[in-house]
């Protein structure tokens, strides 16, 4: 199984917002710089996360993006399933005509069971389980690179 880029970027944003000082918000430009993701990609990600009440966005001078309580209380498996935006993420036997469909092929059933096991396993963990002990070190090289240019 491979997660799509949208899910990857969304999880990075949620991890960053969760670990970042939770009392302050951050901007799209900050997220783009820290996570090395194009701002245009982040706009779509943050809009989706806000629609699903996983982040809170505020416009204006004192605005920004903060993580919501819902995001912190949702299991990683449920977050991944929501972000993948697909009810049959592994295989769709009807998207491209498959000759085995009418012969009781069990592949989709096996893959669906494995996917559900993955989601259930990931639901044993939360964003708080992804906390880093030395958060400031992760971005120290970015500051040094910026100062050297």
TrEMBL record:
Gene3D superfamilies referenced in this protein's UniProt entry, alphabetically: Winged helix-like DNA-binding domain superfamily/Winged helix DNA-binding domain
Keyword terms: DNA-binding
Gene Ontology MF terms: DNA binding; DNA-binding transcription factor activity
InterPro entries: Tscrpt_reg_Rrf2 (IPR000944), WH-like_DNA-bd_sf (IPR036388), WH_DNA-bd_sf (IPR036390)
SUPFAM superfamilies, per database record: Winged helix' DNA-binding domain
One GO location term (cellular component): cytosol
Coiled-coil zones: none
Protein's recorded name: Rrf2 family transcriptional regulator
Native organism: Chryseobacterium oncorhynchi
